[in-house]
Write a structure and sequence with these properties.
This protein has helices spanning about 1-30, 45-50, and strands at about 55, 60-65, 70-75, 80-85, 90-95, 100-105, 110-120, 125-130, 135-140, 140-145, 150, 150-155, 160-165, 175-180, 185-190, 195-200, 205-215, 215-225, 230, 235-240, 245-250, 255-265, 265-275, 280-290, 295, 300-305, 310-315, 320, 325-330, 335-340, 340-345. By secondary structure, the protein is mainly beta. The protein is globular, with a radius of gyration of 26 Å. Keywords: Membrane, Transmembrane, Transmembrane helix.
C-alpha cells in the first residue's frame, strides 16, 4: 500500500509542475489583457522593393526574373547564370547537358530546369531539375515514392520543352514538349509527389498552356490552334473563337483564365472567366494590341505595354509605369527591362 501511495505521489508531482507552468504561461504570455509593443517587420518586402541594376553580356538570352525580384537569370550560350539583385553576386548553375528550357517557380526563388541528353542515334532524353537560388544548389527531381529521377524519352531530337505551366496551390506542373511542327506535341503532368504522367488531350497544334485549380482539382488549360478553341484538359471548351481568334494570355492565383480576342496575334478584347464561379468579365481595349504586350500578374492585374512610349499601363486603374529600354517582364513590385547591357527595374 505504501509503495502504491509513493507511486501515485511521484506521478502527480510532474503533472502539478506542468500545470503550474502552463498557468504562468497563460497569465504572462497568452493573457489577452497583457500590453505589448509589437512592430511587424516584413523582411521579404524590404528586400524585394529595391532598385535593380544588373550588368549582363551582350549575347545574354532568355532573361527572366523571379517573382520576388530578388534574382535575375539569363543564358549566355554556355551556362545558366543567376544574379542576386540585392548583393549583385553572380552564380553559375552547373548544367551537365544541353539546356532545353527553364523558368522561375511562381511563389519561390527556385528554377524549374529541363535538360536534354543524347541517347545515341536520333533520340534524346529530357531530365528535370530544380535550382534553389538562395542555397545555390541544384538537384534532380525524383519520384518521392520510387526515388527515381524524372526522365522522358523523346520521339526524336527535334523535341524541346516549349512551355511550363504551374497550377499554384496544388503544386502541379504541366510540361509541354513539341517537335518542329507543333502537331505531335506532348504534355506531361508532374504532381506534388514528383510523379509524372502523360496527359491525354485532343490532338491539335498546341499554343500556350496554363493551369488552374478547379472544382475537381488542378486542370490544364490550352490553346487548340487547329480549331481555334481554348480547351481544358478534361475536354471542356472555354472559348470557341467563332467570330475571332482566341489567345490564352494567362491564369492567376484565383484560378481566373484570361483570353484575348482578336486576329493576327493582336487583340482588342480580354475575356476573364473562372471554372469554379462561372460568368465572364470583358475588358475592351481602345485599340488593337499585340498579344505579347499584354501581361497578366498573379494577383489578376492586367498590364498593357506601349513599347513606343516606354510605359506600361495597368488596365483597371490606368496607372502608368515608365521604363527604359525594352520591356522583359512584370514581377511583384514593378517591371523589368533591358537597357543596353543592363537589366533594370521600375517600381509600380
Amino acid at each position: 500500500m505504501k509503495n502504491f501511495k509513493r507511486i501515485i505521489k511521484w506521478t502527480l508531482i510532474p503533472i502539478v509542475i506542468e500545470l503550474v507552468g502552463l498557468l504562468c504561461l497563460n497569465q504572462f504570455y497568452f493573457n489577452g489583457n497583457t500590453n505589448f509593443s509589437i512592430k511587424k517587420v516584413d523582411t521579404s518586402s524590404t528586400q524585394a522593393e529595391h532598385k535593380i541594376k544588373v550588368k549582363i553580356p551582350e549575347d545574354a538570352e532568355q532573361i527572366k526574373v523571379s517573382n520576388s525580384g530578388n534574382y535575375i537569370s539569363y543564358y549566355d550560350g554556355m551556362a545558366l547564370q543567376v544574379v542576386d539583385t540585392v548583393k549583385n553576386d553572380v552564380k553559375e548553375v552547373n548544367l551537365e547537358n544541353e539546356l532545353s528550357y527553364y523558368t522561375w517557380n511562381l511563389d519561390t526563388d527556385t528554377i524549374f530546369i529541363a535538360e536534354k541528353t543524347s541517347t545515341g542515334g536520333n533520340s534524346s532524353n529530357l531530365k528535370f531539375e530544380s535550382y534553389d537560388a538562395k542555397r545555390d544548389e541544384i538537384y534532380p527531381l525524383k519520384n518521392l515514392e520510387k526515388n527515381q529521377e524524372l526522365s522522358i524519352l523523346l520521339p526524336d531530337d527535334s523535341y524541346e520543352v516549349k512551355d511550363v505551366a504551374f497550377s499554384g496551390a496544388s503544386n502541379v506542373a504541366y510540361v509541354m514538349s513539341c517537335g518542329n511542327n507543333y502537331i505531335d506535341s506532348r504534355i506531361y503532368r508532374i504532381d506534388v509527389m514528383i510523379r509524372m504522367n502523360l496527359v491525354d488531350f485532343i490532338k491539335c497544334k498546341l499554343g500556350n498552356i496554363g493551369a488552374v485549380n478547379g472544382t475537381n482539382g488542378d486542370e490544364l488549360i490550352y490553346e487548340d490552334r487547329t480549331s481555334n478553341r481554348i480547351r481544358t484538359g478534361r475536354g471542356g471548351i472555354i472559348a470557341t473563337g467563332e467570330n475571332a481568334m482566341h489567345y490564352l494570355l494567362n491564369t492567376d492565383e484565383d484560378n481566373n483564365i484570361y483570353i484575348g480576342n482578336g486576329e493576327n496575334n493582336k487583340i482588342d478584347k480580354i475575356f476573364v472567366t473562372n471554372l469554379k464561379a462561372g460568368g465572364k468579365k470583358v475588358y475592351t481595349l481602345p485599340q488593337y494590341v499585340n498579344k505579347n504586350s499584354i501581361y497578366v500578374a498573379r494577383d489578376g492585374k492586367i498590364y498593357v505595354d506601349n513599347p513606343s512610349s516606354g510605359e506600361v499601363k495597368e488596365l483597371t486603374t490606368g496607372r502608368v509605369t515608365k521604363y527604359n529600354g525594352k520591356l522583359l517582364s512584370i514581377y511583384e513590385y514593378g517591371v523589368i527591362s533591358r537597357d543596353g547591357n543592363k537589366v533594370v527595374n521600375s517600381l509600380f
